[in-house]
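Q: Could you fold this chain for me?
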Amino acid sequence: MGVPVTLPHPWPETVAEAEAIQERLRPLADLADPGPDTVRYVAGLDVAYATAGDRVTAAVAVLDAATLETVDEAVISERARFPYVPGLFAFRELPPLVAALERLTVVPDLLICDGYGVAHPRRFGLACHLGVLTGLPTIGVAKTAFIGDHAEPGPERGAWTPIRDGAEVIGRALRTRPGVKPVYVSQGHRMSLDNACRHVLALTPAYRSPEPIRRADRLSRSG
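A: Sure. Below is the predicted structure, expressed as structure tokens.
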């Protein structure tokens, strides 16, 4: 079955081509749709890089949102098709991630990727790109800040502060465990920032990162 993916562009070969694709697709990311209040299946997406060579391994783990049991997974390993350029990591990670999504037998209702959405220099990070290609609600959750500034959120679980780039709010630093470093949440597609944070907290019962991303991370490193 797989996740239907519409690819409106060939994979770029140059930085200029990649940046032009991000600029062209950015208006297609729907940031006004609040997204679903409840979901049945959630996919975590992550990519591991080989310590030697130029291979990337993409993993998608689909979990039951209520029980957090894994119901489907897919792993694709291939040679990276694009150089290592900050702001353009999506073009290294998208080809194997798309192939992994197409291999699934369970279609998720929500994608959560280890990366950025609008918290990106061109407001079109990996989460936005994946959302536009699949049409699915998508959230970016990163372990480190990329651009923008934020105050430290309170120490309690659920505390957050806005990430601002100038006057623009581009995400939130969200505390998922008391006294533990926050994660960095940004909209990808068809998901409000309020709703994104609510889903992230619901999917993070015991660790710093959402469980779907943790499963995908383990899968990518073992694949």
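A (continued): The chain has one domain: 15-222.
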